[in-house]
Structure of WD40 repeat domain-containing protein:
Amino acid sequence: MSVLSDDPPREPRATSAPEAVTEAENEQAVEEEEEEEPAFPEPETLEYSGVGDSVVEIDLHDDARIATLSHGGASNFTVRTLTSGGDNSDMLANVIGAYEGRVLYNAGEREEAAALEISADGSWEITLEPLSTAVSWGEDEDEFVGAGDEVVQLAWTPEGITALSMTHDGAGNFAIWSYTSTDRDLLVNEIGAYEGQVSLAAGTLLLAVTANGNWTFTR
């Protein structure tokens, strides 16, 4: 089972005796084979907003997504996902004051997310988006620069030994999770400013960043 997708394996197609095909049918078959499937599924984007403490039921789903969060208050802002049984699942945010960020959730074997539990003293907005909306690190770009919580999709494929240099100038937690289609790895988990180099697993698709300052990735 994929870490980023819970789709079941496809059933094998039934086979039959070969039949004569026309040249046009051959060309059509070649074109269909050349069409690439999207790297990530495209579920419907879900949008929610409110003020203060709330519990919001959402369309039941267990696929990995990106949550874009914002808060306009001055006190604690927390967002958790809840299962259909009311149990806590993912902590999407736990900050003080105004906040804007994007976080990855459901990227593992978990129960389906059925609701969001929000603690806030101001207005808030939450958008649940498909993984394809992650910001892209271009194939021709050696460096990627960002700030705060973010989800980065690699437009290039790490192979062999790939060294990744990282910096962070914030005072809070700096954590990086990397995701392949089958596994995840905690690359960095430090408090405050950071500068170092880590190895990136072959086939990495996404980097989920937790930060409260500016950060850079260099390959």
In short: The helical segments are 23-34. The longest strand covers residues 88-96. The chain is about 5% helix and 50% strand.
